[in-house]
Write a structure and sequence with these properties.
This protein has two helices and twelve strands, in the order ββαββαββββββββ. The strands form two sheets. Strands 1-2-10-7-12-5-4 form a seven-stranded antiparallel beta sheet. It has a five-stranded antiparallel beta sheet with strand order 3-6-11-8-9, with no helix packed on it. It is globular and about 45 Å long. The protein is an alpha+beta fold.
């Protein structure tokens, strides 16, 4: 996979960080086209979150090919498939409260893999992500994979610009 610029960093046995070198201007252009409408409120405190997307556009194929490969490496015991993805825009002072991506309503299922890819990270304190007990400072072109049942949150964006990420679930 040519999109790597370094080896993945393992924070613990569950969290993987992958520095990528994808074409961010191309990704930003397609993502910004989707940042319309009212959006939805889930864990976001302020900010904007898109509705769920289920089909990968050609502009995001390289990203999701990379994610697919790494999900397969992490979760080699069974095949996981992309269930959904969405866009997050955290404006100044916006954050995300603690949450998981694992549905615990019956019938119960095994946790899958969730992740986030950072598209636009302003200079300064754009809001770290807390994954369990691990605090990570995001940067553009960073991919993070973690178990979908891991509690995580995003600290407030203390910059004057928007922080944009793409999140997803594999089940």
């Amino acid at each position: 996979y040519t999109s790597f610029i370094g080896f993945p960093e393992t924070l613990n046995d569950k969290i993987k960080l992958y520095p990528l070198s994808l074409n961010l201007p191309r990704i930003r252009s397609v993502v910004m086209e989707w940042c319309t409408g009212e959006g939805r409120v889930v864990s976001n405190r302020g900010g904007w979150q898109s509705d769920l997307f289920y089909h990968i556009p050609v502009e995001l194929k390289e990203l999701f090919d990379t994610v697919d490969h790494n999900v397969d490496v992490i979760h080699s015991s069974s095949v996981l498939e992309l269930e959904e993805f969405w866009i997050n825009v955290n404006k100044p002072n916006d954050s995300n409260s603690p949450h998981t991506h694992h549905d615990i309503t019956p019938p119960f299922t095994e946790p899958g893999i969730s992740g986030v890819f950072y598209i636009n990270i302003p200079e300064g304190d754009a809001g770290d992500i807390l994954l369990g007990h691990e605090r990570v400072q995001p940067y553009e072109n960073l991919l993070i994979l973690f178990p979908s049942d891991m509690i995580h949150m995003v600290y407030p964006n203390r910059t004057e610009k928007n922080r944009i990420s793409l999140s997803f679930n594999y089940v």
